[in-house]
């Protein structure tokens, strides 16, 4: 394997280490990136030294070449110095041979230097490519670290909220679930409302009072109050369908939370009727679980996918 091939393999190994570094923990990535940059600097230094050695050898050969040329000129100009019994060509034959050998060495050295320059140019190009990859990797590390910090902050906020609601969860007055990467609190109908009625009961208000205190402490989130019903049709009362009943219940809960100090700009209400059951509709116990109010923690805008390019495409003239 040539030195150039070995160098290419080393550069390839450096790039592979950079790619591997992006998938490791932040501290390990930075250590590996620093090591690879140091190895590349050392290799460039060795290559420069090799090039300087070649230039020195060229100067020495040039000097020897000049000495031989002077010798040839001297022998040619002064016939008296020629050996007796031999012609000038015979006398000059060793000088010509040495000169030819030097010319061959000189040409080989020039070729080597040219190859060395090409190798140096290749190393510089590879170094620039690796430096760009190092920059991209560092940027990816910083972005991953920032995203990890955001994720940790969200998890800490969720844990703090659950800690404040732990007593209510422990008593079965509400439940906490994670659905579709969203955290939500479930409040059963039996605590909040009477059958086929959307007015919040006294016991329901007592529960919502405690929930409101927790929601007010989570200042970085918006909440959606979602009403859910079972699948049985409504046969009496003022509400014509489960859609109307679930909407009225969600709206009344949202309005009561606003009365208890939760900022209205952080609340919204939605109706789902019987479209999202969490238990079987074949039993009374299952239908009772499906009749519920959910308080959904909505994601912040910066946590959503960037759809700016799609928005620009949709708004472009047809």
Describe what you observe in this structure.
- This protein has helices at 3-22, 26-77, 88-170, 189-192, 202-217, 242-259, 284-290, 308-315; strands at 175-179, 182-188, 222-228, 267-273, 292-298.
- A 5-stranded mixed sheet has the order 1-2-5-3-4.
- Residues 7-25 have low confidence and may be disordered.
- The protein is an alpha+beta fold and 318 residues long.
- The two termini are 59 Å apart.
- It has 8 helices and 5 strands; from the N terminus they run αααββααβαβαβα.
- It folds into 2 domains: 3-151; 172-300, 60s Ribosomal Protein L30, Chain: A (2-Layer Sandwich).
Query: How are helices and strands ordered from N to C?
Result: HHHEEHHEHEHEH
Measured distance between first and last alpha carbons: 59 Å
Q: Roughly what is the average pLDDT, rounded to an integer?
A: 77
Main sheet characteristics: 5 strands, mixed
Apparent shape: rod-shaped
Residue share in β-strands:
5-15%
Q: Which regions have little confidence, pLDDT < 50, spanning 5+ residues? A: 7-25
How many helix segments? 8
**Order of strands side by side in the largest beta sheet?**
1-2-5-3-4
User: Please, how many domains?
Assistant: 2
Q: Any idea what the radius of gyration is?
A: 42 Å
